[in-house]
Write a structure and sequence with these properties.
This protein has 2 domains: about 5-140 and about 180-230, Spore Coat Polysaccharide Biosynthesis Protein SpsA, Chain A; about 145-175, no CATH class. The protein is about 30% helix and about 20% strand. The protein is built from 6 helices and 10 strands; from the N terminus they run E-E-E-H-E-H-H-E-H-E-E-E-E-H-E-H. A 6-stranded mixed β-sheet has the order 4-1-5-9-6-10, sandwiched between helices. A two-stranded antiparallel ribbon has the order 2-3. The chain has a two-stranded antiparallel ribbon with strand order 7-8. Strand 7 and strand 8 form a beta hairpin.
Length: about 230
């Protein structure tokens, strides 16, 4: 029996920074439709389900061929409900429905520039390395070693112990080591690892690197407008 991969698309109804964020139009489709399309086009995803508490989101998801097999329980529908509990709930449903589920992948709606090949490549990396989990990552646009913060007197202070701007020798950005950050586009884990850690960050997590131009995670209105402009340029 081949490995079965469950894709989970969480889409809660409430959003404070961007009201109805999951339904905002990007390139002629609601944002959630882009993730449904990516999951459907990815060869590695066997079953993708949308977990939502919102009837309007459920209706729109179904219009774009999304599978919405249940309404998310009320206790998992608040803005404080942890995503890991939402995923565990989806796994429990899928285990009863499909009997065997070997991998789970989180596909965030807020990463509309992700491509189906990113999902496939991340899952291939997880399987080929026999790791417990994989998260998609990308390079920082600015060196995190240059982080600063205001002190109590209102003056800037370096927040880095190495290569900070207040070092005796100024270090150019191109001479700094490459640091990566999770971009939220794709996360996946073996079911065994998920049930043990209930997290995509395990003792054996590998990264799948994506270019920065496909890594934007929409959380603010200006990011939504930027993605819209990027798609049409």
């Amino acid at each position: 029996m081949s490995d079965r991969v469950l894709g989970v698309i969480p889409a809660r109804g409430g959003s404070t920074r961007i009201p109805d964020k999951n339904l905002k139009q990007i390139d002629g489709m609601p944002m959630i439709a882009h993730t449904i399309r990516d999951a459907e086009s990815a060869n590695m995803i066997d079953d993708a389900i949308v977990s939502t508490d919102n009837e309007r989101i459920a209706t729109v998801a179904k219009e774009y061929n999304g599978n919405v097999p249940f309404k998310r329980p009320d206790e998992l529908a608040t803005d404080k409900a942890p995503t890991n509990e939402v995923i565990t709930h989806a796994i429990e449903w899928a285990t009863e429905e499909y009997s065997n589920v070997d991998y789970v992948s989180l596909l965030q709606v807020t990463s509309p520039l992700r491509e189906p090949e990113d999902i496939d490549n991340a899952l291939h990396r997880l399987q080929e390395t026999s790791s417990q989990s994989v998260v998609s990552v990308s390079e920082y646009l600015s060196p995190p070693q240059w982080a600063v913060a205001e002190n109590n007197d209102g003056y800037l202070e370096s927040q880095s112990d190495s290569a900070g701007l207040w070092q005796d020798e100024y270090v150019r950005s191109q001479d700094l080591g490459t640091l990566l950050h999770p971009n939220g586009a794709v996360s996946a884990a073996t079911i065994d690892a998920w049930m043990e850690f209930e997290s995509f960050y395990t003792p054996e997590t590998v990264g799948y690197e994506m270019p920065a131009k496909r890594s934007l995670d929409i959380d603010e209105p200006w990011e939504l407008e930027l993605v819209r402009k990027m798609i049409h340029t």
